[in-house]
Specification:
Rossmann fold, 5-stranded parallel beta sheet, 5 strands, 55% helix, globular, binds adenosine-5'-triphosphate, binds (3R,4S,5R)-3,4,5-trihydroxycyclohex-1-ENE-1-carboxylic acid, binds magnesium ion
Length: 196
Amino acid sequence: MLNGVSVFLIGMMGVGKTTIGQLLAQRLNYEFLDTDMFIEQATGQSVSTIFAESGESIFRQLETATLSQVSSRLRKVVATGGGIVVAPDNWSYLKHGVIVWLDLPVEQIQKRLSDDTTRPLLQQQDLGSRLNQLLSERRSRYAQADIHILIQPDETPDQITERVLRAIAQECDRKRQMDEAIQQLNKEMPFQTNAD
Ligand SMILES: Nc1ncnc2c1ncn2[C@@H]1O[C@H](COP(=O)(O)OP(=O)(O)OP(=O)(O)O)[C@@H](O)[C@H]1O
Ligand SMILES: O=C(O)C1=C[C@@H](O)[C@@H](O)[C@H](O)C1
Ligand SMILES: [Mg+2]
């Protein structure tokens, strides 16, 4: 249904981009790629070490460079870092594929990440307020995705993956119908110049 077009998963930390991305790639027979892991392999450093020793700005440059590399490739499911939506330049790369926003209420994210030490932007006392602050800064960017999946609290990774697959199929159908309508209209009403 995708004709090789890649899928980009976006969303806040902890919503399950890496978990769902791996399952989705298996179902689509695509290769799975995670921008955080890609950066860790390329630099030989963990995301936390990059933030601590080089700073967030360098991490964001690594993220954009990674995305520019992977966006030109076909048949990939790409789990992106939670902050990838912030840099406007990154959208020109994301738009090479179908963009899926995995969304989960902050209370659920909080439960999942309460003991996490690997996400540098969350290493502070009040996890709930920090997540709410990041989400309010980013929500309008996430909302630019082609597909929005609001995950239910008890939904399993397999159930979410099924729902994403159905939504991708619907989105591909919608795009195909629109392309056909445009082609039909172009046939019926050939473009006229002022000279006609
Ligand atoms: N549907 C689910 N139900 C319960 N736990 C889940 C589900 N999906 C993911 N998790 C768990 O939540 C945690 C965060 O998931 P994951 O690492 O996939 O999120 P992420 O979106 O990739 O986060 P990040 O943006 O920080 O990389 C993991 O411990 C994972 O096992
Ligand atoms: O939301 C974010 O800004 C981040 C999310 C993670 O995936 C990592 O990319 C990093 O911890 C920053
Ligand atoms: Mg991840």
